[in-house]
């Protein structure tokens, strides 16, 4: 079993040092951070000065260097999500960013303003919902990966053994990572979505769990991060695992989503839907192969489901994806193009069964992971469905929920929860839990990437496409338009700062925040940075206008819909 992180902590502060005291039973360790030299050492409880100011905390997110110097980021509030095989899972809901420096008198006015902006960026990321952790369980790995590990791996700390793709505070923990003796103070934090439910079918009780792990590689916001990078990391890559726990047996079904893995972009330009641009200079096959080589090593066979339009502006991307798969010629990959919008037009969402029937045999071959109550592996998942649309949000989540539902039907029948011939969709109480959880998953992933809730969640929640759902989709689309064009530059830079893709250098001769603006673009590029062009007042005015415009449009449309229904 992994070495647990400390769960109960107290932060003691003096002008010279931070002392983080482990308060778990039998613990005497104190993590000491020198606020002047920044040195990190391990001490004991008697070393904490009685004069220190004390407060409880729930974890150390890490440290970061800004213009004013170093900052310590701690978790100050948490809520319990549930229990996972007797391990408590928490959501971090509030944080504090504490300066090592006691004063800001060493900064110029420009540096003070820059530091304030960087702090705002940091707090922006921390205020995005969806940070999860456990002090005793490794949330970054699937059940199948955890079942196939060495004794040495199992003895590692949570920080050492974590899948770095999903440790969102990996950069912030770099100083603690370098010192194994303090690893019990370091919490790997996941970003994404986790929900847990105790359910009953036929009087048989089981736990049903859904986990979405967002990759911190090529992370960002909707229009600023598309395609892949030179290492083969895909934008908006998410690993989603559905777990069932019944009478000691555990079953798991894993899917992935990620941007179309070639070099392409779709920068905001005030158009409702900017034209995707496929790079003419990049070596697409190199990045494409790197991406799928890693996917095959981690997951096995790849069944690619491409849901984008096969005409219009999305058509070249579909053709490029198909050509790349064909050129690679790998027996570990299957490619399926399904034009979601064409097939389901006029609200014919029942036609999604065409796709499910098409991939049913493949899904049976991929199988799922199952371990019995004695700990023996009964079945392994041999590969994953890798689904995508343009954003890998709305269409993708609908399809993933349907594939997961089919897998769950097979798992519950095999475990004896469902009777032979009994259908999961007939279990009304569970179906409500299932559909709402998948819709909540869609909203979480969409808010983290696109800035709004997901589209099409009326279908995920109810199994039907509704007029009210269309209205909500219109609302969210308008808010996305505003955010993508007027505030996503700031959001992207905030993520880059948080993840260490951009490092603050207080010795820079020019502030990166004071470059002259060019009104031909909504956001300007500063090296790798994108700064918003509008002031906060302008953004607020625009938001009010869009809200008024959207609501007026909705009200004008309602009478027409009412007549249609009659």
TrEMBL record:
One annotated GO molecular function: phosphatidylinositol-3-phosphate phosphatase activity
Pfam families (UniProt xref): Syja_N
Catalytic activity as recorded in UniProt: a 1,2-diacyl-sn-glycero-3-phospho-(1D-myo-inositol 4-phosphate) + H2O = a 1,2-diacyl-sn-glycero-3-phospho-(1D-myo-inositol) + phosphate; a 1,2-diacyl-sn-glycero-3-phospho-(1D-myo-inositol-3-phosphate) + H2O = a 1,2-diacyl-sn-glycero-3-phospho-(1D-myo-inositol) + phosphate
SAC domain mapped to chain residues: 122-451
The organism's place on the tree of life at top rank: Eukaryota
Protein EC: 3.1.3.64
GO biological process: phosphatidylinositol biosynthetic process
InterPro entries given in the database record: SAC_dom
Descriptive protein name: Phosphatidylinositol-3-phosphatase SAC1
Organism from which the protein derives: Macaca mulatta
Gene transcribed to yield this protein: SACM1L
């Amino acid at each position: 079993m992994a070495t647990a992180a400390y769960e109960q902590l107290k932060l003691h502060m003096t002008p010279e040092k931070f002392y983080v005291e482990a308060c778990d039973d039998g613990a005497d360790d104190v993590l000491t951070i020198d606020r002047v030299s920044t040195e990190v050492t391990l001490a004991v409880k008697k070393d904490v000065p009685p004069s220190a100011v004390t407060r409880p905390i729930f974890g150390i997110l890490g440290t970061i260097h800004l213009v004013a110097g170093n900052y310590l980021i701690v978790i100050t509030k948490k809520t319990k999500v549930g229990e996972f095989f007797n391990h408590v899972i928490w959501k971090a809901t509030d944080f504090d960013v504490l300066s090592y420096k006691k004063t800001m008198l060493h900064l110029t006015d420009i540096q003070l303003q820059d530091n304030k902006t960087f702090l705002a960026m940091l707090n922006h990321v921390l205020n995005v919902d969806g940070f999860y952790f456990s002090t005793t369980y490794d949330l970054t790995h699937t059940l199948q990966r955890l079942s196939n590990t060495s004794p040495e791996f199992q003895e590692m700390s949570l920080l050492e053994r974590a899948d770095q793709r999903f440790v969102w505070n990996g950069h912030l923990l770099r100083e603690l990572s370098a010192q194994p003796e303090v690893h019990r103070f370091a919490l790997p934090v996941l970003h994404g979505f986790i929900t847990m439910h105790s359910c009953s079918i036929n009087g048989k009780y089981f736990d049903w769990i859904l986990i979405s792990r967002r990759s911190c590689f090529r992370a960002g916001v909707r229009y600023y991060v598309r395609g892949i990078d030179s290492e083969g990391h895909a934008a908006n890559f998410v690993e989603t695992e559905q777990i069932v726990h019944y009478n000691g047996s555990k079953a798991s079904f894993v899917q992935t989503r990620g941007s179309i893995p070639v070099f392409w972009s779709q920068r905001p330009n005030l158009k409702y839907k900017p034209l995707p641009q496929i790079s003419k200079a990049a070596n697409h096959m190199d990045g494409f192969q790197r991406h799928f080589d890693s996917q095959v090593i981690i997951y096995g066979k790849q069944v690619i489901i491409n849901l984008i339009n096969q005409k219009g502006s999305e058509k070249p991307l579909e053709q490029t994806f198909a050509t790349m798969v064909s050129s690679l010629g790998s027996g570990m990959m299957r490619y399926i193009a399904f034009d979601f919008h064409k097939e389901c037009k006029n609200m014919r969402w029942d036609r999604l069964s065409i796709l499910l029937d098409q991939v049913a045999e493949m899904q049976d071959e991929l199988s799922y992971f199952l371990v019995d109550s004695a700990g023996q592996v009964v079945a392994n998942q041999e590969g994953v469905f890798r689904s995508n649309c343009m954003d890998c949000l709305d269409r993708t989540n609908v399809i993933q929920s349907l594939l997961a539902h089919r897998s769950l039907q097979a798992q519950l029948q095999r475990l004896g929860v469902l009777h032979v011939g009994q259908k999961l969709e007939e279990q009304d109480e569970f179906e409500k839990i299932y559909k709402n959880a998948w819709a909540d998953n869609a909203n979480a992933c969409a808010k983290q990437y696109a800035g709004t809730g997901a589209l099409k969640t009326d279908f995920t929640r109810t199994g039907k496409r509704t007029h009210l759902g269309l209205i909500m989709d219109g609302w969210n689309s308008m808010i996305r338009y505003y955010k993508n064009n007027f505030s996503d530059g700031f959001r992207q830079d905030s993520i880059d700062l948080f993840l260490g893709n951009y490092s603050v250098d207080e010795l820079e001769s020019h502030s990166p925040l004071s470059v002259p603006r060019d009104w031909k673009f909504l956001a300007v590029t500063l090296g790798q940075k994108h700064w918003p062009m509008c002031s906060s007042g302008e953004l607020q005015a625009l938001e009010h206008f869009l809200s008024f415009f959207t609501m007026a449009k909705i009200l004008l449309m309602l009478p027409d819909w009412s007549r249609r229904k009659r």
